[in-house]
Specification:
Number of strands: 2
Helix content: over 70%
Number of helices: 8
Shape: globular
Length: 263
């Protein structure tokens, strides 16, 4: 009698362990899917806010326009990353429900492929950034020469654009550090070269640039790069680049908690 009860207890415990082991991958798939959906919604909301605030803002051509173009492209990439995470989570969840073995194999293959692609692209980004910084340093040393690159706006923008559009972190640093001019140098201040824009139009342009800076600070945090300089002024500006934040609200705190949990 006692042995029968012990056997039943063991059977129940083993059954619970098997049930928990089978449920764990499904729960993981649900969390992955929810995280992808949250990432997509958040990125899409940021892009919509950018469009809403900036739809009537006119920017100057040259490097100011290039900076904003690069940040806008990075916003679209964030939406794409969210959609990819959602798709990956839904596929994983489907495999978890259908066949645990297939899910494990698929997850392994996807993880290896993602790690390989991310590593390769990160190496390319670092190499290109080092090349950009080396060239920028040489141009700075030649700043007083008659043919200095900054005196040739079209050529300067072509050089800068070649890097900024493929490495958005450079565009964000340019904007958020404030080293390349105040907001008036980003906004088109005159209409038809004769009439100054209204105060409300200027205020809207300022709000738009500030919105881009806030998004850029978060982008730098997520990008994982660490920028530093031995120059005290540049070092301070690099710290400033990550400090553009919107006032914290209850909704933003809940979103941060949810993102951290699902991430």
């Amino acid at each position: 009698m006692q042995h029968d009860l012990e056997d039943r207890v063991v059977d129940v415990q083993v059954g619970e362990q098997v049930h928990d082991a089978a449920a764990a991958p499904v729960i993981g798939g649900v969390l992955d899917l929810a995280g992808g959906v949250l990432k997509t919604v958040t990125a899409a909301a940021d892009k919509y806010k950018e469009w809403l605030v900036g739809r009537n803002v006119e920017l100057l051509g040259g490097h100011p326009g290039t900076i904003v173009e690069a940040i806008r492209n990075a916003m679209w990439l964030s939406v794409g990353e969210g959609l990819y995470s959602t798709l990956k989570g839904s596929v994983k969840l489907g495999l978890d429900i259908g066949a645990a073995g297939a899910s494990t194999l698929a997850t392994l293959v996807i993880s290896v492929a993602e790690a390989l692609a991310t590593t390769i692209w990160r190496i390319v980004e670092i190499a290109r950034m080092r090349s950009f910084f080396d060239q920028a340093r040489d141009q700075w040393h030649a700043i007083d020469e008659a043919n200095s690159l900054h005196l040739r706006p079209i050529e300067f923008n072509n050089w800068y654009k070649n890097y900024a559009l493929t490495i958005p972190s450079l565009a964000v640093l340019t904007l958020n550090t404030g080293l390349c001019g105040d907001k008036m140098r980003f906004l088109k201040m005159f209409k038809d070269n004769t009439h100054v824009i209204s105060q409300s139009q200027f205020d809207q342009g300022v709000a738009y640039v500030d919105k881009l800076k806030v998004w850029g600070s978060k982008y730098l945090d997520d990008a994982g790069f660490s920028f530093s300089s031995k120059d005290a002024l540049v070092s301070h500006c690099l710290e400033l680049a990550k400090q553009h934040k919107e006032p914290e609200t209850r909704g933003s705190r809940l979103l941060a908690v949810a993102s951290g949990f699902l991430g």
